[in-house]
Design brief:
The complex is a heterodimer. Chain A is an alpha/beta fold. Chain A has one domain: 3-Layer(aba) Sandwich (Rossmann fold), CATH 3.40.50. Chain A contains four helices and four strands. A four-stranded parallel sheet of chain A has the order 2-1-3-4, sandwiched between helices. In chain A, helix 1 packs across helix 4. The mean pLDDT of chain A is about 90. By secondary structure, chain B is an alpha/beta fold. Chain B folds into five domains: about 110 residues, Ubiquitin-like (UB roll); about 120 residues, no CATH class; about 160 residues, FAD/NAD(P)-binding domain (3-Layer(bba) Sandwich), CATH 3.50.50.60; about 70 residues, no CATH class; about 70 residues, 2-Layer Sandwich (Alpha-Beta Plaits). Helix content of chain B is about 25%, strand content about 20%. Chain B contains 16 helices and 25 strands. In chain B, strands 2-1-5-3-4 form a five-stranded mixed sheet, with helices on both faces. In chain B, strands 12-19-13-14-15 form a five-stranded parallel sheet. In chain B, a hairpin with a 2-residue loop joins strand 3 and strand 4. In chain B, helix 2 packs antiparallel against helix 3, helix 9 runs parallel beside helix 10 and helix 10 packs parallel to helix 11. The longest helix of chain B has 21 residues. Chain B is extended. Chain B starts with 5 loop residues before the first strand and ends with a helix. Classes of the chains: A alpha/beta, B alpha/beta.
Amino acid sequence: MGNQSFDPRLVGFLCNWCSYTGADLAGTSRMTYAPNLRIIRVMCSGRVDPQFILKAFKEGADGVLVSGCHPGDCHYQEGNYKALRRHRLLSNMLEQMGIEKERFRLEWVSAAEGAKFQKVCNEFTEQIRKLGPLNMNGGKNEQTEA
Amino acid sequence: MNENKKIKLFINNKPIEVEEGTTILQAAQKMDIEIPTLCYHSLLEPYAACRVCVVERKMGEKVDLATSCNTEVKEGMEVFTDSEKAVNARKMNIELLMARAPAAEPVQEIAQKMGIEKTPFEIKDPTEKCILCGLCVRCCEEVVQANAIGFVDRGLEREVSPPFGEPSEDCIGCTACAFFCPTEAITYEDLHERKIIHEEMDLGPSKAIRVPLRQAVPMVPFVDEESCIHFKTGGCQLCEKVCEKEAVNHEAEEKEIELDVGTVILASGFKTFDSKRIPPYNYGRLDNIISGLEFERMVNASGPTGGEIRMTNGEKPQSVGLVHCVGSRDENYNQYCSRVCCMYSLKFAHLIAENTDADIYDFYIDMRCFGKGYEEFYHRLLEEGTKFIRGRVSEITDIPLSEKEEGKLIIRVEDTLMDTVRRVPVDMVVLATGLEPNEDQTELARMFNITTSQDGFFLERHPKLAPVSTASDGVFLAGACQGPKDIPDTVGQAGAAASEALALADKGTFELEPITAEIDEEVCAGCQLCIGLCPYTAISYDKEKGVSVVEEALCKGCGTCVSACPSGASQQKHFRDQQIMAEIEGIFIE
C-alpha cells in the first residue's frame, strides 16, 4: 500500500496553448505544488502518440498525465477530442498490460487555470503515491524507493 | 416656368414679391409681420379652423376678410393685417374660442395681447382645452397616416375622437397628436413630468431619431426602427422633409460587410455590473439609488437635468452616499477589482461638493488610487471634506429606526476603522458599479480562436512579454475587453495594439512557425488516415505517387496526423517521434 516516503515519478504531456501556459501561470503566480511532474511540451494534446505513454511507463514513470485545452477551446480546433479518444482506448489497453487505469490521467487545463494545474498536480501525485511504484521493467522503478 | 412665377403684392402698404402659390401668412412671415394663429403648422396643410389669422384683403374694388393661412396671394393684392375690420373680427373669434376652451393657454395669451379680459359668451366647460384646431386630426392623417382620430358631431357638440369614441385599433401610440396639440388638450400618460429625472434616465431618449450617446463616434443620429412612425405606417418622413442636407434616408438598410483583413484588433469593451443582482442594495426598487453611469448622465451638462444633481422629487440632496466595489471584489459576484470605480467615485464626490452643499459619505474597502496624480486627488478630497468610511456596505434600506432616519435611505455598514456597525441616513446613493465582460465575450473568443481568463476577459498571450497579443497570430487586444482598465491605460494599450498590427501589416509577409508536419514519401504507405484527421485540410493524396502530401502553408503544426500515422512516415519538425522519445528518456535522468 501507499508509502508516504515514496516520491512518484510522473510525466506530463502538456499542450503548448492551454496547459503549458497554465503551468507557466501557476509558476509566475508563485503557487506551490508537488514537484513530481516532469513536463514535456507538445504543440497539441492531439500530438500525444500512445507510444509516448507506453514509452514513459517503460522508462520508469509511475504515472502519466496528458493535459490539453477544454473541449471546444482547442487551438487546433479538435486535437483535444482526438486525445480524449486515444485516452479511452489506451486506458483499456494499459489494464490488460497490468498497469492501473489511474496511472494514466487526462485533464483539461486552460491557460487561465494556474490554480487548477496546481490542484491536478497535487491530486495526481497523491493518487500515485497511494498506488505505490509501478513494478515493471525489472524493478527499474524501485530505485526511487531507496 | 410656373414655379418661378413671381407675384407682387402689398402687405400693410409694403411691397413684396413672392412665388406663386404662397399663402398670405407665409408672405407676411417673410416680412416679419406677425399674424396670430392657432391652427397653422408649417408641416401640415392649412385648415383655417381657428380663424384667428383673419386679415383684410383688397383686390381691385373688392374688399373682404380672409383667413391668411389658406389664402394664396394674387397679383396686386393689398393686405392689411391690423386694420380695424381685421382686428375686430379676430377679437370676436378669440372671444368665441375663449368660451369654447377656457383652459387653453395659447388662446389666453393671444387674448391678453389683444387686450381682451373675458369673453361675453357663455362658457360651457371651464376645464375644456380643445380648440378644435384639427392639428391632431391632420397630423394623424397626413403625417402618421394612421387615421386613428377624426372630428365627430357638428356645431357645439363637435369634438375630436377615435371612431365610436372607443380606443382605435389603428392608433400606433406614436403620440404625434400630443406633440402637435397647441393647448395640451391631448397628453400622453407616459409623459413624465420634468422633475422625475431618474426614471426618465431609465426610459432613455424618447425620440425615434437620435444620437445613441453623447460620446458616440461618429456623432451621427440614427433612426430607431422600433419607434419610428414611418416604419409602422409608411407615413411621416417629416425628418426627410426638414433636413436641408437630405441626409435622412428611410430606405437605407442594415448591411453586413465582409472584409478580408490581415490583422484584427479586438476592442469590444465591457458591460457594467447590474446592481439589481445585489438584493440588499435595493437598486431599482427604492428611489434615489442610482448607478455610477446614471449619475454620470445626470451631471452631464447635456443630460436630462442640465448637469444639476437632483433627487426624484426634483430637489437637491442634503446628503449623498457613495458606495464602492458594487459587484467587484466580492466572491459572490466578481472577485477581481474593477480598477476604475474608486477614482470615478472620488470624481463624483468632487462634483457633488461643487454642485451642492450636501454631506458626502464615501464607503470604501480600500482606496485604490494607483495612477499618476490619483493619490494626490484623493488627498484633495480629504481636504474638501468628504467623509470617508472604510467598510463594505451591507444594506441600503428605507426602514427607519429613529426619527432622523425617517424618509431617508439608510446605509448599513461596518466601520472597520471605528470598529462599530453604523447606520448612515442619506438622501441619495450612488453605486460604484464594476466592469464585467460582455455577454458575447466567449462567443467572440471562440470566433477568433483565443481564450478568456478566469474572470471572463480575453487572455493575452503573456502578461508581461506579449500583453496585447493573443494565442492567435494577427489578433490583438485593446482596452477593457482584456480586463478592467481606465482611459489612460486603454489608450496606451490601444496604441500598442495598433503598432503591433501595423508592424505585421507593414512587413507584408507572414512568418510560419517551423513546426509543420512533413510526410516521408519513402515510408508513406498511402493509407490516408491522416487526411481525415487534419483540421486544416492541409494534407492531400497524391494519386500518382500513392502518398499523402502536406501543404506547408496550410499546416499549423498541431501534430495530430503524426501521432496517428501507423508507419511513422508523418513527422512534425522539432517534435519528431525520436525527439520526444529521447526527451522521455532524458527526463528520468536524475
